[in-house]
Design goal:
Low-confidence stretches: 110-117, 177-182
Structural class: alpha+beta
Strand content: 15-25%
Radius of gyration: 19 Å
Shape: elongated
Number of helices: 9
Distance between the termini: 22 Å
Oligomer: single chain
């Protein structure tokens, strides 16, 4: 079994990492966590060494880039990494998409904005049912804690166990989704290895790029696609909500710099 942990980020690191500070400026950040996964980290550093050896005349850049996902995917990503095999929208090839612009990553996330569909973490659901909590109460707990984990859900359940509607059927209303507790999303801030880039246009029939390249870049410069395993590492997880103004912000008017990565 792959041993990993997701730890809260200390205050000093919140200020030191520019990519995290950007999110505080643009979104309503709920919490920030750091992934500690020795196996994934070892595979990532090994892949970096291989890229350096295979192309000694070309530097291997290491950038911090954004990927947005539903919160139900966070635990799997922290344990197993992002997986291109789950890609469903392939505008620039069947790979894992990243962006240096958080506004762009948020806008084009696979989670449909305004959707009232709820994905409950089935593993957490099973554990909490076995602990004796009613299914409908568990739904409430997972919804209002963003599927963030057993500890958060258990605390919510114990805090609300005396509510009159604790075990009543739970169907989130449109109001719930439009309120401050609405959107279940997380930024995954990843270390990404980039060495040889190929510019590509929108092409839904594109699977992979020629193997002399390791990264595809959209012609608008906003999207980077990785096709090879272990050329990225999920460094930080940022749970967030959108501000009303953020939903309409223009990503092309915002400028962010690639940030060189340092030791873990």
């Amino acid at each position: 079994m792959n041993d990993y942990s997701i730890e809260p980020v200390v205050d000093s690191e919140l200020y030191e990492v520019e990519e995290i500070r950007h999110l505080y400026d643009l979104f309503d950040v709920i919490s920030v966590h750091k992934v500690q996964n020795p196996l994934l980290w070892g595979l990532y550093t090994l892949r970096k060494s291989e890229m350096e050896i295979n192309n000694r005349n070309i530097n291997v850049n290491e950038w911090l880039l954004y990927h947005v996902t539903a919160t139900k995917n966070v635990q799997s990503i922290a344990e197993n990494n992002l997986d291109w095999r789950f890609t469903s929208r392939c505008r620039y090839g069947k790979g894992v998409c990243f962006s240096y612009c958080p506004l762009y990553a948020n806008r084009y996330a696979s989670c449909a904005q305004g959707s009232t569909a709820v994905d409950y973490d089935e593993n957490l659901m099973h554990i909490l049912i076995n602990m004796g909590f009613p299914r409908e109460a568990i739904k409430r707990a997972l919804f209002y804690t963003y599927n963030q984990g057993l500890e958060c859900a258990t605390k919510w359940l114990m805090d609300h166990i005396m509510d009159n509607n604790f075990a009543a059927p739970f169907v989130p209303s449109r109001h719930d989704f439009n309120s401050e507790i609405s959107i279940e999303r997380a930024f995954i801030i990843c270390r990404v290895l980039v060495q040889r880039i190929k510019d590509v246009n929108v092409n839904y029939n594109l699977n992979v790029i020629p193997n002399v390249f390791d990264t595809a870049k959209s012609l608008n410069g906003m999207v980077y696609v990785k096709f090879n395993d272990y050329e990225f590492y999920p460094q930080y997880i940022v749970y967030y909500r959108e501000h009303n103004l953020t939903q309409y912000a223009d990503p092309y008017l915002c400028h962010f710099n690639y940030n060189q990565c340092f030791d873990q």
